[in-house]
UniProtKB/TrEMBL annotation, chain A:
One Pfam family it belongs to: BPD_transp_1
Domain ABC transmembrane type-1: start-end pairs: 81-293
UniProt record similarity statement: Belongs to the binding-protein-dependent transport system permease family.
Name of this protein: Multiple sugar transport system permease protein
Listed transmembrane segments: 21-48, 83-106, 118-139, 182-199, 211-231, 274-294
InterPro entries: MetI-like (IPR000515), MetI-like_sf (IPR035906)
Superkingdom field: Bacteria
Automatic annotation (TrEMBL), chain B:
Listed name of the protein: Multiple sugar transport system permease protein
Subcellular localization, as worded in the UniProt entry: Cell membrane
Species annotation: Aquamicrobium ahrensii
Membrane topology: Multi-pass membrane protein
Keywords: Cell membrane, Membrane, Sugar transport, Transmembrane, Transmembrane helix, Transport
Keyword Secreted: no
InterPro entries, A to Z: BP-dep_ABC_trans_perm, MetI-like, MetI-like_sf
TM region(s), chain numbering: 12-34, 77-99, 111-135, 141-160, 189-207, 213-235, 242-263
Primary localization: membrane
SUPFAM superfamilies: MetI-like (SSF161098)
Highest taxon above the source species: Bacteria
Domain ABC transmembrane type-1: 73-263
Family, as annotated: Belongs to the binding-protein-dependent transport system permease family.
Length: 305, 277
C-alpha cells in the first residue's frame, strides 16, 4: 500500500509518520511479549549453561565451558544422541512413506473424503496424554489388547515396553500413529494445489502413471515434502510426552533421548546449569539442520506464499 | 491420473480398503479408550480383554463427582481460555501488520517467529522454571497462563498472518479513502472479515493449551494441576483405576472432538501450519 495521497511532500511525510506509528503500536505488545517470554528466557538459559547452578544449592558460580566439556565427555550424552537419531530417523522415514502413499490415494479418492480427513485429523489433535495413556493400557503384557490380538493371530505376545529395542520400536509406533496424519495432510494439500498443465502435457506425451509420478508429481511436491519433513523431524527430535509416559527413558537408558536426558538432569535432579547446556546443544543441532534444509529447499519462500 | 472405468473397480476397492483401514488404525485407540471407560472394574482387568460387555456409566459418575477432577477441569479451562484470549488480543494486531506492511526487519520478525516453533521446549522450560521460582510464580494460574501464551504466541501470529494475507485489500482501501483511520479500518473492516480465521486460531490455541503437558506439569506442580497432569498422576495406579482414568481421559477429549467436527477445514490449515489452505 504505497500510494501517496495528493497534496505535496508535507502531507506525504505526515502520512509516512502516521503509518510507522500504526505499525509500531500494533506490533509493540507482541514484541514486548515475545521478548519477555522467549528472548529473555533464552538468554537466561544460555547464561545458566555456563554456571553450576543447582536449585536450592546457592550460590551458582560461573563455570565457563565446564558443563559443555562434561557433556561431550559423558557416554550418556552420546548414547542419548544415538537413541534420538534412531527414534527420529525411523519415525520420520516410516511416517513419510506411509503419509506420501496415503496422500496419493486420498487425492484420487472421490467418496467420503471429508469424513476420512476428519478421522485422519484425530491422532494429531487429541490430547496426547489421553492417547498415550490408552497405548499404555494396550501395551500391557497381560491385560493389553495388542498382545490379545497377536495371540489370536497365532503370533507370540510381546513385552512392548519392557525390553530395550522393543520399547524403542513401540515408541516409534505410537509416534507414527500420532504424526503420520501431519505428513499425509500436508502432502494431500500440496497435491490439491498443483497446477494441471504439467499433467496434461505428460498425458499428451504418453507418459505412464509411474513416469508421471516420478517426473512430474514428485518434483512439484518437493517443497511440500520439504516442509513436512523439516517440521516433523524437528518435532520428533523434541518428543517428550510419548516417551515420558510410556517408558520414562527406560528400560535402563534404552529410550532416553537427548530431550529426556535434559529433562532428567534439569528437572528431576535440578541441575539447572548442566541441563541448560544440554538444551543449548539441542538448539544448536536443530539450527544446523534447519539451515541446511533452508539452503537446499528455499523453504521460507514456500511457507510465505 | 484417472484410469478407464473397467480397470478401476479393483483399484478403487483396494484404495478404499487401504484408506479406511488407515482410518480404523487412527480411530482404534480412541475407540479402545471409550471402550475401557464404559467397563466395570472386573471387565477392565479381564483376561483376555473383552470387546463386548455390559457397559456402565459408573466410571463417569464417579469421575464427575470427584472434586479433584472438577478442580483439574477448572484449572485447564481457566488457563486455556485466558491464554487464548490474551494470545489473540496481542497476536492479531501484530499478524495484521506483518501481513500488510513491508518495513525494515519484517522478514526477520517472521523468521524469528518461525524459529520459536523450532526451539526445544526444554530450552524454554528451564529458564521459565528458574524465573518463576524466583518470582514465586510456580504453582500459580497466572504463571501457567503466561507460559502458555509464550508457547503459542508465535504460532498465533504466524497462522493469523496467513489468514490476513488472504483477505482482499479493496475493502480496507475503500474504508481508507472514505477517511477512516488505520486503526478504525482494522477494527471495523478487517477484524469482522477475519473472524473465521481468528476463531480457527483461537480454537487451535485453546486445544494446544488444553493438551499441553510438560510446562503444566513442571510449572504447575501439585498446586495447579491441569487435566493431563492429573491423569498422569494417577497412571501409576494403573490397573485398578483403568476405568476411571479412561473416563477422565475421554471427558478430556470431548472438546477436541467437538471442535474437529465443527471446524475441520480450518483446523487442517492450522495444524499443518498454514501449509495446507
Amino acid at each position: 500500500m504505497n500510494k501517496v495521497p495528493a497534496g505535496g511532500l508535507g502531507k506525504a511525510a505526515s502520512w509516512r509518520r502516521e503509518r510507522s506509528h500504526f505499525i509500531l503500536l500494533m506490533l509493540i505488545p507482541a514484541i514486548v511479549l515475545l521478548t519477555g517470554l522467549i528472548l529473555v528466557p533464552f538468554l537466561v538459559g544460555f547464561g545458566l549453561s555456563f554456571t553450576d547452578y543447582i536449585l536450592s544449592l546457592p550460590p551458582a558460580r560461573f563455570a565457563g565451558f565446564d558443563n559443555y566439556l562434561t557433556l561431550l565427555s559423558t557416554p550418556e550424552f552420546w548414547d542419548s544422541l544415538r537413541v534420538t537419531l534412531i527414534f527420529t530417523v525411523s519415525s520420520v522415514a516410516l511416517q513419510t512413506a506411509i503419509g506420501l502413499g496415503l496422500a496419493i490415494l486420498l487425492h484420487e479418492e472421490t467418496k467420503a473424503v471429508p469424513a476420512l480427513r476428519a478421522i485422519y485429523l484425530l491422532p494429531m489433535a487429541v490430547t496426547p496424554i489421553a492417547a498415550v495413556f490408552t497405548f499404555r493400557m494396550m501395551f500391557n503384557p497381560g491385560l493389553g489388547v495388542f498382545n490379545h490380538i497377536l495371540v489370536s493371530l497365532g503370533l507370540p505376545p510381546q513385552d512392548w515396553l519392557g525390553a530395550g529395542n522393543m520399547a524403542l520400536f513401540s515408541l516409534v509406533l505410537v509416534d507414527t500413529w500420532q504424526h503420520t496424519p501431519f505428513i499425509l495432510l500436508i502432502i494431500a494439500g500440496g497435491l490439491a494445489s498443483l497446477p494441471a498443465d504439467p499433467f496434461e502435457a505428460a498425458k499428451i506425451d504418453g507418459a505412464t502413471p509411474w513416469q508421471t509420478f516420478r517426473l512430474v508429481t514428485m518434483p512439484l511436491l518437493k517443497p511440500f515434502l520439504a516442509i513436512a519433513l523439516l517440521f516433523r523431524s524437528i518435532d520428533a527430535f523434541k518428543t517428550f510426552d510419548i516417551i515420558y509416559v510410556l517408558t520414562s527413558g527406560g528400560p535402563g537408558t534404552s529410550t532416553t533421548t537427548l530431550n529426556m536426558y535434559a529433562y532428567k538432569q534439569a528437572i528431576e535432579f535440578v541441575s539447572l546449569g548442566y541441563g541448560s547446556s544440554i538444551a543449548i546443544v539441542m538448539l544448536i543441532i536443530i539450527t544446523i539442520v534447519t539451515q541446511l534444509f533452508l539452503r537446499r529447499s528455499r523453504l521460507l519462500t514456500v511457507a510465505e506464499s | 491420473m484417472a484410469k478407464k472405468k473397467k480397470a478401476l473397480s479393483l483399484g478403487v476397492v483396494l484404495r478404499r480398503v487401504i484408506l479406511w483401514g488407515f482410518a480404523a488404525w487412527c480411530l482404534f485407540p480412541i475407540y479402545w479408550l471409550v471402550n475401557m471407560s464404559l467397563k466395570q472394574p472386573v471387565d477392565a482387568v479381564a483376561r483376555p480383554p473383552t470387546f463386548i460387555f455390559m457397559p456402565t456409566l459408573q466410571n463417569y459418575i464417579e469421575v464427575l463427582q470427584d472434586p479433584r477432577v472438577i478442580g483439574y477441569m477448572m484449572n485447564s479451562l481457566i488457563i486455556a481460555l485466558s491464554a487464548t484470549f490474551f494470545g489473540l488480543l496481542i497476536g492479531a494486531p501484530a499478524a495484521y501488520v506483518l501481513a500488510r506492511h513491508r518495513f525494515r526487519g519484517d522478514s526477520k520478525i517472521a523468521f524469528w517467529i518461525l524459529a520459536t516453533r523450532f526451539t526445544p521446549p526444554i530450552a524454554m522450560l528451564i529458564p521459565f522454571f528458574v524465573i518463576f521460582y524466583n518470582l514465586g510464580l510456580l504453582g500459580t494460574h497466572a504463571g501457567l497462563i503466561v507460559a502458555h501464551i509464550g508457547i503459542n504466541l508465535a504460532m498465533i501470529v504466524w497462522i493469523l498472518r496467513g489468514f490476513f494475507q488472504d483477505l482482499p485489500r479493496d475493502l480496507e482501501e475503500a474504508a481508507f479513502i472514505d477517511g477512516a483511520g488505520r486503526f478504525t479500518s482494522f477494527r471495523k473492516v478487517i477484524l469482522p472479515l477475519a473472524l473465521p480465521g481468528i476463531a480457527a486460531v483461537g480454537i487451535l490455541t485453546f486445544l494446544s493449551s488444553w493438551n499441553e503437558f510438560l510446562f503444566s506439569m513442571v510449572l504447575g506442580g501439585n498446586d495447579v494441576m491441569t487435566v493431563p497432569v492429573g491423569i498422569y498422576a494417577y497412571i501409576g495406579f494403573e490397573q485398578i483405576e483403568w476405568g476411571k482414568l479412561s473416563a477422565a481421559a475421554t471427558l478430556m477429549l470431548a472438546p477436541v472432538l467437538i471442535f474437529i467436527l465443527l471446524f475441520q477445514r480450518q483446523l487442517v490449515r492450522g495444524l499443518t501450519l498454514g501449509a495446507v489452505k
